[in-house]
TrEMBL record:
PANTHER family reported for this sequence: BNAUNNG04460D PROTEIN-RELATED
Protein name: VOC family protein
PROSITE patterns cross-referenced by the UniProt entry: VOC
Source lineage: Bacteria, Pseudomonadati, Bdellovibrionota, Oligoflexia, Silvanigrellales
InterPro entries tied to this protein: Glyas_Bleomycin-R_OHBP_Dase, Glyas_Fos-R_dOase_dom, VOC_core
Domain VOC: 7-134
The organism's place on the tree of life at top rank: Bacteria
Transmembrane regions listed in the UniProt entry: none
Record organism: Spirobacillus cienkowskii
Region (Disordered): 139-184
Amino acid sequence: MDPRPARMPWLAPYLAVKNLDRSVDFYSKAFGFKAKGMKDNYGQISHMNFFHKNTVLFMLHPEGSAGNPSRSPSTLNVNASQSFYVFVDNVDKVYEKAISNGARSVMSPEDTYWGDRVCSVVDLDGYSWSFAKYLKSKAPAKKKKTTKKTGTKKTTKKSPAKKKKTTKKATKKTIKKKTKSKKK
């Protein structure tokens, strides 16, 4: 039996936020995540799951709730020590929505050398988010040389180090021959 609730990943970040209502509104509007809350013993919503692509992406709780000492980066006045990398359908659209809802831009959308289109923002509580869409592989293709005689592909090549050893051996033999001929 799977020990997890339905649609829950094996690892889900649990973020502390200053104001739960404000953060729920931000993550829903700015990033398009779907929220589902849980009420505590007093009838207050004190925990939120955020869904993306039909799975829980992360969870939220108000700072200090249920005895949890966690604080947001903005409360601690520090840069977040981790960041989140989320794949989305439209990087530019998420970036525009995030900025218009109060996120701070770190990197506007751009195509990267590793093949993703990526943008980065910092949210209202100081957490760093990157949104990406895979475009294509940027790995360099292997080059194959065609030999002139056969027209076949050749992938192996003598190493320069072996050539040097061969050259040195040939030189030593030549020197020995010259030395022997001088002695006679």
